[in-house]
Amino acid sequence: MRPVFLDDIVEKISAVLPQDIQALTEDLKKNIRVILDSAFEKMHLVTREEFEVQKQIVARVQERVQELENKVESLQNNGR
Protein backbone atom coordinates (compact mmCIF):
# COMPACT_ATOMS: atom_id res chain seq x y z
CA MET A 1 0.00 0.00 0.00
CA ARG A 2 1.30 3.45 -0.80
CA PRO A 3 2.31 5.51 2.27
CA VAL A 4 0.85 8.71 0.74
CA PHE A 5 -2.53 6.98 0.46
CA LEU A 6 -2.39 5.91 4.10
CA ASP A 7 -1.21 9.33 5.21
CA ASP A 8 -4.20 10.88 3.43
CA ILE A 9 -6.62 8.53 5.20
CA VAL A 10 -5.00 9.21 8.58
CA GLU A 11 -5.19 12.98 8.02
CA LYS A 12 -8.87 12.78 7.06
CA ILE A 13 -9.71 10.69 10.12
CA SER A 14 -7.83 12.97 12.49
CA ALA A 15 -9.43 16.08 10.94
CA VAL A 16 -12.92 14.98 11.96
CA LEU A 17 -12.00 14.25 15.57
CA PRO A 18 -13.36 16.57 18.26
CA GLN A 19 -11.03 19.41 19.26
CA ASP A 20 -10.24 18.01 22.73
CA ILE A 21 -9.17 14.71 21.20
CA GLN A 22 -6.99 16.43 18.61
CA ALA A 23 -4.49 17.18 21.36
CA LEU A 24 -3.59 13.51 21.09
CA THR A 25 -3.37 13.77 17.31
CA GLU A 26 0.16 12.49 16.82
CA ASP A 27 -0.42 9.39 18.93
CA LEU A 28 -3.75 8.82 17.21
CA LYS A 29 -2.18 9.22 13.77
CA LYS A 30 0.48 6.65 14.58
CA ASN A 31 -2.07 4.20 15.97
CA ILE A 32 -4.50 4.69 13.10
CA ARG A 33 -1.70 4.14 10.62
CA VAL A 34 -0.65 0.91 12.34
CA ILE A 35 -4.25 -0.32 12.30
CA LEU A 36 -4.70 0.57 8.62
CA ASP A 37 -1.36 -0.99 7.65
CA SER A 38 -2.37 -4.19 9.40
CA ALA A 39 -5.84 -4.26 7.84
CA PHE A 40 -4.55 -3.60 4.34
CA GLU A 41 -1.81 -6.20 4.75
CA LYS A 42 -4.42 -8.80 5.67
CA MET A 43 -6.39 -7.89 2.54
CA HIS A 44 -3.35 -8.58 0.33
CA LEU A 45 -3.96 -5.38 -1.63
CA VAL A 46 -1.61 -4.32 -4.40
CA THR A 47 -0.89 -0.93 -5.85
CA ARG A 48 -2.21 0.10 -9.25
CA GLU A 49 1.34 -0.11 -10.61
CA GLU A 50 1.76 -3.69 -9.38
CA PHE A 51 -1.62 -4.59 -10.87
CA GLU A 52 -0.70 -3.09 -14.26
CA VAL A 53 2.60 -5.01 -14.32
CA GLN A 54 0.83 -8.28 -13.56
CA LYS A 55 -1.77 -7.51 -16.22
CA GLN A 56 0.99 -7.07 -18.82
CA ILE A 57 2.66 -10.32 -17.75
CA VAL A 58 -0.63 -12.21 -18.08
CA ALA A 59 -1.22 -10.71 -21.54
CA ARG A 60 2.25 -11.85 -22.70
CA VAL A 61 1.68 -15.33 -21.27
CA GLN A 62 -1.69 -15.56 -23.06
CA GLU A 63 -0.05 -14.54 -26.34
CA ARG A 64 2.65 -17.16 -25.89
CA VAL A 65 0.09 -19.86 -25.06
CA GLN A 66 -1.84 -18.95 -28.21
CA GLU A 67 1.36 -19.17 -30.30
CA LEU A 68 2.15 -22.59 -28.85
CA GLU A 69 -1.41 -23.80 -29.43
CA ASN A 70 -1.14 -22.69 -33.05
CA LYS A 71 2.18 -24.54 -33.44
CA VAL A 72 0.75 -27.71 -31.93
CA GLU A 73 -2.27 -27.52 -34.23
CA SER A 74 0.00 -26.94 -37.23
CA LEU A 75 2.18 -29.93 -36.30
CA GLN A 76 -0.90 -32.10 -35.83
CA ASN A 77 -2.25 -31.07 -39.23
CA ASN A 78 1.10 -31.76 -40.94
CA GLY A 79 1.26 -35.18 -39.37
CA ARG A 80 -1.99 -36.32 -40.93
Structure description:
- The protein has 80 residues and is mostly helical.
- The protein is built from three helices and no strands.
- α1 packs across α2.
List the helices and strands and how they pair.
Layout: H1 3-15, H2 25-43, H3 48-78
Fraction in helix: over 70%
- Overall pLDDT level: 84
Q: What is the helix tally? A: 3
H/E element sequence: HHH
Low-confidence stretches: none
| Sheet having the most strands | none
Domain count, please report it. Answer: 2
Q: Which structural class should the secondary elements be placed in?
A: mainly alpha
Quantity of strands, as a count:
0
Overall geometry: rod-shaped
Measure the end-to-end span. Answer: 55 Å
Beta-strand percentage range: under 5%
Query: How large is the radius of gyration?
Result: 25 Å
Highlighted features:
80 residues, mainly alpha, 2 domains, 3 helices, 79% helix, 0% strand
Task: Summarize the model shown.
By secondary structure, this protein is mostly helical.
